[in-house]
Amino acid sequence: MSKMRSKKFSEKEKKAILEKVDGYWCEFGNDKNIPVYLRHDVEADLDKACQIAKLNKSRKVRGLFTLQVVSEFYNINSEYNKKIIKEILDNEQEIGLHYYSSYRESDDFDFQDYQYQANILNNFLKTIGGNRFRCFSYHRPTKKQLEKSAKGECPSGYIDCYSGKYFELTDEPHKARKKYMSDSDHEWRYGYPLECDIENFDCIQILMHP
Q1: How distant, in Å, are the alpha carbons of 15, 171, 178 from that of 45?
Q2: Within its chain, how far is the Cα of 87 from the centroid?
Q3: pTM of the predicted model, to two decimals?
Q4: Residues 111-138: what's their mean pLDDT?
């Protein structure tokens, strides 16, 4: 298993990752031979997200940027943030929901507050000329949530980035055929994209946090 690497945003590193997987990129919901899915969970910095969106477009990559609507760090409805998110869309990137549930630790978790958050994001997207969002990712997913994803349980009409099509729930992630690499907490876990042999996997999901 690759050792963890310290992660601070580097345009040089980002470009190298985009170049390495050029030709494999695929949008969530589409099929392709050995698809590579690119996801950005925006937890704190919309300006940095916009910077990454521009970089993606320069490489002709359409990434998924999931936004929180119950964030303590930003308000999507502020006039400044509206402009930033509109710019992300104008750079041909996709917007999704970064879903953080008040029921996430409960054994009775069943997406109780999902529709509430979905309505907020869909209404917001309408105000800036965007389409209804398609995809969501959990913020700090619990075992209960990931187990639901593995069973294909999710709100009707939406794509779960942790579903079995894109993510393999296993106690041995280094052996997974569906490779998931994330720079959570500024460390690359479960592999480093620039050291990954793409042909060894059924699909790859790369998560980079702005």
Answers
A1: 20, 32, 29
A2: 18
A3: 0.93
A4: 97
